[in-house]
Amino acid sequence: MSKVSVIVPVYKTEKYIEKCAVSLFEQTLEDIEFIFVNDGSPDNSIVLLKEVISRYPKRESSVIILNKENGGLASARIHGLQHATGDYIIHCDGDDWVDTNLYESLYRKAIETGAEVVMYPVTEEWGNHSFVRELGDLGDSCQDVLKNWYKNCVQMYTVNKLVKANVYKDNNLLPYEGINMWEDNGLMLRVFYYAKGLAQIDNATYHYFRGNEQALTHNYGRKAVDQMIKCAGYLYDFYEEKTDFKEYEKTALAIKFFARINLITTTFGGLREYYQLFPESDAVIPFISDNAFSSKGIIRFKFVKYNLAWLFVLLFKVSLWVKK
Question: Does residue 127 share a domain with residue 245?
C-alpha cells in the first residue's frame, strides 16, 4: 500500500503527457502509486508515456497502466478509483502538470492535521499568461464549505483535493457513470458531505492547461449541458434523501441553477427551457457570488440576475450576426 495514489486519465494527450508524467515522477514524495488509465486513446499517448517511464527506473514498479475501451472521463476515473491502493487518493489530468513538491506537501498536511481532504490552489495556464485561483480561508470543515457553497462556490475540481481513500470506500463514492461534464462536481460535492476535517496548503500548485482543444471543457455543446442537468438532478436527490437536507438545501438549489443557466445561449428555445427547468432554484440567485463565474459567464449571470435573460440572448444573436 502506498501513501498516495495518483489517478491519471489518458485520452488524446500525446502533446502533453510527457510534461505531465515528468512532473509526477519527479515528485519529492517517494511512496506514490501512479495509475494511468488509457481510455482507449487512439493516438501515441501511451507509447510516449512508456518512453518517459523508461527514464525513471526507480518509479517503474510504482506505475500501473490500465487499458480500457473508451468510455469517457467519468469511466476512466471510476476505473482508477477501483484499482487505487493508496492511503490517500488524488487525480491529475494527462494534459496538466504539478509542482514537484505538491504531493509531499499535501501528504504531510494530511498527517499533521488528520484532515480527510486537503486542498490547494490551481494555476490556470493559458500559454501566454497564468492565473492563480486562490482558495481563501476555507476553515476546517468540509460540511461548512458545502452548506455555504451556494454563496461562495468553492471550485470542486477533483485535481486539487487530496482525499483519504476511506472516504471513497466507506461511502461507495464513485463518479456518476456517463457524466463526463461536471464529473468533478458530481463526485466532490458528495465527498465533502462525508469527509471529516479540511486543510489547505499554499506552497505548491496544480497547473491546469487551458489550451488543449481536445479537452471536454474547451468548447462544450448541448450534449454537455444535458449532462450537467442530469448531474444536478442526481446531486439534488442525493441531498434530499439525507435527514439534514435543510442544512444543504440552498446548495442543492444552487447546483440546479448552475446547470440550467447554461441553456441560455443564442436561442429563445433554450431560454424557454431555462424558465421551465428547475424554477425553484431562482430562490438562490440573490445569494450567488459573481466569483462563481468565468469572465464570460458573469455577463450572462448579470443579465439573468436582473431579469434580462431575453436581452442577453438577443444581444448574443446580434453579435454572432455581426461576426458573419
Answer: no
Residue 273: phi and psi, rounded to 5, are: -60, -40
Q: Note whether 179 and 287 are same-domain residues.
A: no
CA distances for 293 relative to 79, 155, 224, 290, 297, angstroms: 31, 10, 17, 6, 5
Beta carbons of 166 and 201 less than 8 angstroms apart = no
DSSP bridge pairs for 119: 161, 200
CB atoms within 10 A of CB 79: 21
Global pTM value: 0.93
**Residue 145 and residue 60 in one domain:** yes
Contact indicator for 187, 91 with CB cutoff of 8 Å: no
Q: How far apart are alpha carbons 196 and 189 in whole angstroms?
A: 14
Determine the number of helices (DSSP H) and then strands (DSSP E) in the chain: 13, 11
**Coil, strand or helix at 130:** strand
Tens-digit pLDDT profile for residues 145-185:
999 999 888 999 999 999 999 999 999 999 999 999 999 99
Closest CA to 228 of 213, 238, 217: 217
